[in-house]
Design goal:
Elements (H helix, E strand, L loop, with lengths): L2 H20 L4 H13 L1 H62 L5 H23 L4 H24 L4 H26 L10 H23 L1 H27 L4 H21 L10 H30 L3 H5 L1
Helix pairs in contact: 1-2, 1-3, 2-3, 3-4, 4-5, 5-6, 6-7, 7-8, 8-9, 9-10
Bound molecules: zinc ion.
Length: 323
């Protein structure tokens, strides 16, 4: 074999060497490379260089991950330390107040309210700093409990309110906070198998229970209004449930769902007027505007429903693709 030809083979082998190294060349190329590198020190050297470069890269990645993990750990330790410092700082005013109380300077009631207020501050700052996972959920839960404690101590010690009044306020607070925060807490946490894809349903049940607890405490406080509160409340809640069930569970085209939701809202509006649960004069100026809006809404709902119907007939595979 002449020098020229041998150099030619080297060139070819060096061209496919990266492919061989990645294991993506053809069987014939692989055999050619393996045979050649055994005989040719130059190409054999090149292959070994490729292999060591690979090992180096792997080592580099490993080192980088190690450094990142170390950093994360350091950050967590720092957060933990800051959390501890804030907790300690929160203890200071409490200790001072207690000392002043012991010497007869202030009222014990103020201390109790102060302590519960400090718990609220701790819930908002210390808890997210020292918890390792589900920080946001823990922060919301602890802060809500502390807030209820502040309301309870203030109300019982300074206003001599009844327990019923406390529960009225407590359920209203929990219901009000649940609407924005309960879904966030739920989506942040991992539920047991089986419940994992029922988070929307759990949120709805939780909010409904809170709502009726609130309504019942109002009803106990104002027995004459109990019937109206429960009836009007159920009327409103059932609309929310219907919308939820349509959107979440009805296996229909999205446009049909949207149309359905509009029609349900519309039906509730007319039903509310009919049953006198919505109090307004149909004949008045604002009444006429509302009637016009809801009539338009109904027509729009019907239109969306029909378009959805046609589209799901045109593309019957729509839901098969999604599953
Ligand atoms: Zn060679």
């Amino acid at each position: 074999m002449s020098d020229f030809l041998e150099n030619d083979i080297c060139d070819i082998v060096q061209d496919i060497l990266p492919l061989y190294h990645d294991g993506v060349c053809s069987e014939k190329s692989r055999m050619l490379v393996e045979k050649h590198v055994k005989a040719c020190p130059k190409c054999g050297d090149l292959l070994r260089k490729l292999e060591t470069a690979d090992a180096d890269e792997a080592k580099l990645i490993e080192e980088r991950q190690h450094v990142l993990a170390h950093h994360e750990k350091q950050e967590k330790t720092l957060a933990m330390k800051i959390g501890m410092i804030i907790a300690a700082l929160l203890l200071l005013p409490i200790i001072i107040m207690l000392l002043v109380t012991l010497s007869g300077g202030t009222d014990f009631r103020s201390d109790v309210v102060l302590i519960s207020s400090m718990l609220l501050v701790a819930g908002l700052t210390v808890v997210p700093l020292i918890s390792k996972q589900n920080r946001f959920a823990k922060m919301i839960i602890v802060s809500t409990l502390a807030l209820l404690l502040v309301i309870f101590t203030t109300q019982q010690l300074f206003y001599h309110g009844s327990i019923l009044e406390f529960f009225e306020i407590a359920f209203s607070v929990v219901f009000g906070l649940s609407i924005p925060f309960f879904p966030v807490i739920l989506f942040d946490s991992s539920l047991p198998e089986g419940f994992q894809n029922k988070k929307g349903l759990i949120t709805m049940i939780w909010d409904t229970v809170c709502f009726f607890l609130m309504m019942f405490t109002f009803g106990i406080a104002y027995p004459k209004a109990l019937h109206d509160l429960i009836v009007a409340g159920s009327f409103g809640i059932s609309l929310v449930w219907l919308i939820f069930l349509i959107v979440r569970y009805l296996p229909k085209h999205p446009l049909m769902k949207a149309g359905g939701v509009l029609l349900v809202i519309d039906a509730w509006f007319w039903l509310g007027i009919r049953q006198n649960w919505l109090t307004f004069e149909v004949g008045s100026y604002s009444g006429k505007i509302l009637v016009a809006i809801y009539t338009t809404l109904a027509l729009f709902g019907i239109l969306l429903f029909i378009i959805g119907c046609i589209r799901s007939k045109m593309y019957p595979d729509y839901f098969k693709d999604k599953e």
